[in-house]
Write a structure and sequence with these properties.
CATH class of the largest domain: Alpha Beta
Order of helices and strands: HEHHEHHEHHEHEEHHEHEHEHEEEHHE
CATH architecture of the largest domain: 3-Layer(aba) Sandwich
Mean pLDDT: 89
Low-confidence stretches: 1-7, 223-230
Number of strands: 13
Largest sheet: 8 strands, mixed
CATH topology of the largest domain: Carbamate kinase
Number of helices: 15
Oligomer: single chain
Helix content: 25-40%
CATH superfamily of the largest domain: Acetylglutamate kinase-like
Distance between the termini: 19 Å
Radius of gyration: 22 Å
Number of domains: 2
Length: 384
């Protein structure tokens, strides 16, 4: 963690410049795009589109993750609480508002000589491997054609249990699928602070974070001041972790100014979360997943072995939770319940439970068939 220095801010913005970042994902929250009355802030949005056009014409491929459909639809339908009074209201508002949102983006991009495309995705589209690869292929083709994809969660069919719930994490997952090198979250805050700046006048902006540890997580403040969006700093940290493991830098920057991407490029004010290096595509997909079919509780020795690059062996497991089959994604947690890794399990839940804590020599007799090399092989496992 580094504190702000004027000489450092230019380097932050430079990582997202067209010459350094071939593909960029920009996320725009509802509070920026929609005014309190539920109308699109069209003049501000036109400035964003001008910024995007400049980047595209400079050779950068840009995808936009745009919130705002629920807020727009709620106004049109006259729904209380911005369309979030119930799941049914949110679904109806999203279905109605998405049309207006897409039209605004398409018109403004067309005025800049650019073509827009719409992609609505669900959590399942990016959690199930085959559907994820299909989405990735579509994004790759659109971006390679110079199209600007406008992406949002498909809130009209999402349920309370099976959804992203915020577009911060969606943006990070889209960056993984698109193979983007950078994500910019335009927000109503200009970065991560040591404390909530609206409550603590001594709070200081943190310009760079290499690793999201307990100290960084303690600084996050849940919730959104606008009452319009669904994410706060907690969701932004979750997005940063996903982006980092996928090899993308992520910046939180203020959208509460005209031409926000140009302004960020000029002054670099924000918080940069540095990308991790060397994560393969399949492992990045695993690390970025938001759901798992079960958990395997392991002892401290197994945790240490995993951190040194070993596979998960049954001897280091203490308990199995959930109902999963071979090939499902499961979380590996320590004795306190903290997740330490995620991977593709080699056994179904019943067989995994039979061999918990047992050495390999006993597996064949317990299972009635030849055991596999590990409960989760290191090639299919990623630390989180």
């Amino acid at each position: 963690m580094r504190m702000a220095h004027d000489t450092h801010t230019a380097n932050i913005a430079a990582r997202f410049a067209p010459g350094a970042c071939h593909r960029l994902v920009v996320k725009i929250g509802s509070a920026l795009l929609v005014d309190p009355a539920g109308a699109i802030r069209r003049e501000w949005l036109a400035g964003v589109v001008e910024d995007v056009a400049e980047r595209v014409h400079a050779g950068q491929q840009v995808a936009i993750v745009s919130s705002g459909a629920i807020a727009l639809g709620a106004r049109r339908l006259g729904l209380a609480k911005g369309g979030r009074a119930s799941l049914e209201d949110a679904q109806a508002a999203a279905a109605t508002g998405q049309i207006g949102l897409s039209r605004a983006w398409a018109e403004l991009l067309h005025a800049q000589g650019l073509t827009a495309a719409q992609m609505l995705v669900t959590l399942g589209d990016l959690e199930e491997r085959r559907r994820y690869l299909n989405a990735a292929a579509t994004l790759d083709r659109l971006l390679s054609l110079g199209v600007v994809p406008i992406i949002n969660e498909n809130d009209s069919v999402a349920t309370a249990e099976i959804r992203f719930g915020d577009n911060d994490r969606l943006a990070a997952r889209i960056a993984q699928a698109a193979g983007a090198g950078g994500v910019i979250l335009l927000s109503d805050v200009d970065g991560l602070y040591t404390a909530n700046p609206t409550r603590d006048p001594n709070a200081k902006l943190i310009p760079e974070v290499a690793q999201i540890d307990a100290r960084i997580r303690a600084m996050a403040d849940d919730g959104s001041d606008s009452g319009m969006g669904s994410g706060g700093m907690v969701s932004k940290l979750a997005a940063a972790r996903i982006a980092q493991t996928g090899g993308a830098h992520l910046a939180i920057a203020s959208g509460k100014r005209d031409r926000p991407l140009s302004a960020f490029a000029a002054d670099g004010r924000g918080t940069l979360f540095l990308a991790a290096s060397g994560t393969r595509a399949r492992k990045a997909w695993l690390a970025g997943r938001l759901t798992a079919r079960g958990r395997i509780v392991v002892d401290d020795g197994a945790v240490a072995a995993l951190r040194h690059g070993s596979s998960l062996l049954a001897a280091g497991a203490k308990a199995v939770e959930g109902n999963f089959v071979r090939g499902d994604v499961v979380e590996i947690v320590d004795a306190t319940g903290v997740a330490v890794a995620r991977g593709l399990v080699e056994y179904n839940a019943a067989d995994a439970a039979r061999i918990v804590g047992r050495r390999s020599a006993a597996h064949a007799e317990l299972l009635g068939y030849a055991p596999r090399a590990a409960m989760i092989h290191r090639d299919h496992l990623v630390l989180i």
